[in-house]
Specification:
Layout lengths: L14 H52 L19 H6 L20 E3 L9 E4 L15 E2 L7
Antiparallel strand pairs: 1-2, 2-3
């Protein structure tokens, strides 16, 4: 039987070689795993910034159509439902958001809308970050329409 090698002629891996490979794989998994676990919150922060930018654009369109920004009582809901004010709702041009609802932030908290905004701005749109509480650092840091360029 030419061409077939017997099992006895093959050299296998030693236990030491297998332990070295398993150790290297364990170290790689630990290093890569720790880095991968950091990215979900970074992605959520990016998603919140994109959503706030979308709200800002929709609010500017709302303003162009109606001549005013939604009140605090109307909030971001005015972007998907006609306001109760008859003068404003007459000029309201349908939903200003792609979805027929105001989405929650990536951590499933409500976005905060203030009109007028602090520091004399027209409005504030705020995501309170992972903890859902005003203030914070890192993933808990607030994201607003005024700090979208910050990392």
């Amino acid at each position: 039987m030419k061409g077939l090698k017997s099992v006895g002629n093959r050299r296998g891996f030693t236990l030491v070689e297998l332990l070295v490979v398993v150790t290297i794989l364990g170290i790689l998994v630990a290093v890569v795993g720790v880095n991968v676990l950091r990215y979900p919150d970074k992605a959520r922060r990016s998603a919140a910034k994109a959503q706030i930018a979308q709200f800002k654009s929709a609010l500017d369109s709302f303003y162009l159509d109606t001549g005013t920004y939604p009140t605090n009582d109307e909030g971001l809901k005015a972007l998907v439902e006609a306001p109760m004010d008859a003068d404003i709702s007459a000029d309201w041009d349908g939903s200003y958001l792609a979805e027929a609802r105001v989405p929650k932030d990536p951590w499933r908290h409500e976005y905060v809308y203030r009109q007028p905004g602090e520091d004399g701005t027209d409005f504030d749109i705020i995501c309170y970050g992972k903890d859902g509480v005003e203030g914070g650092e890192g993933v808990d840091k607030d994201i607003t329409n005024h700090n979208l360029d910050e990392r």
